[in-house]
Each structure stands twice: as structure tokens, then as C-alpha cells.
């Protein structure tokens, strides 16, 4: 498979992942699926915008670059027909790095949010974080400590877990594009688009 075609496949995969991450982060603004009475009632990590900025916006740019690599004009650069394609593949490595940083940020925020647990209304009469060191993950009986909003613990866990998994996938895809980009930079596009034009 050509390095450009491979990059296009990665771009096609990254775009829906980025959109899903944005949606997950937006849903987290509605604890338990309900509108919060006060922004202070929402888990702090939601406002770090890991899914919106990290795995969302910062991932769209690399995805669009990867999509455009296959159609990149590789002819007539410095008298070398493959120079343009090689430069484009080198540029994709930089964008892949940006994407990996964004996804890594989302991954870290999500892991911390899962470990800390959701912010909820407890029997003490306050909105607080009732769980310590992720103790609620293996002990579901502790979930009853959150009185409101209803279903906040599974809501919190599900959405942040989705962000965590999608962040891991995005990091892996960006790392793969770094390798693919290095191959494309060193070896050029194996399809030889200029040769195809002259055929």
C-alpha cells in the first residue's frame, strides 16, 4: 500500500473518532443526562476540555492533512518528481505529533477523572468528590454515596472511559503515521504518481 493511501485511511478513521470525543465531552456537561443547576456541580475535569480540544480540535488538523496526502501533487519540486511527496510526508509527521499530543492530553485528563470519580451531591449536604483513589471502581456499593444526580457514576465512568479508549486509539494511529511518514519521506510514494500521469 502506498504511504499516501495509508495516511488517507488513517485520516478517515481519525475524523469520526474526533467527532465522538467532542460529543462525549459535551455530554459530560450534563451530569447524569440532566442540566446542572450550577457549573460548580459539574466535575472539574470536564472543563479541561480533553475531548473537545485534545482529541477533538487538535485531531481534526492531522486528520485533514492525512486525507490530503494521497492527492498531493508530487511533481516538479527542485527537478525531482518525488520531492513534493516526500516533503508532504515529512510534514505529516509533524501533524501526527500534534495529534498525538492532543490525544495524550485527553487520555491523561480522562484517566485522572476516572481515578478521582464524579462530583456529586452526598449525604453531607454538599457537592463533593466522595471517592478516594479510585476505590469506587471495584466496589459498586460505594456508588450510593452519590445521591444526586441520578446515575452520575455510570454516566461519568462510561463517557470518560470512552474518551480514554478513543485517546489511546488516536495516539496509536498518530504513532503509526509517524512511522508511515518516515517511510514516505525516505522512500517516497511507492505508487509513483508522476509515473502514473505519464502512462
Automatic annotation (TrEMBL):
Protein name: Transmembrane 4 L6 family member 4
Membrane topology, record value: Multi-pass membrane protein
Presence of keyword Ligase: no
Cellular component, GO annotation: membrane
InterPro entries: L6_membrane
Alphabetic keyword roster: Membrane, Transmembrane, Transmembrane helix
Cell membrane as UniProt keyword: no
Highest taxon of source: Eukaryota
Membrane-spanning ranges: 12-34, 46-67, 87-114, 152-176
Signal peptide: none
Encoding gene, per UniProt annotation: TM4SF4
Localization of this protein: Membrane
Family as reported in the entry's similarity comment: Belongs to the L6 tetraspanin family.
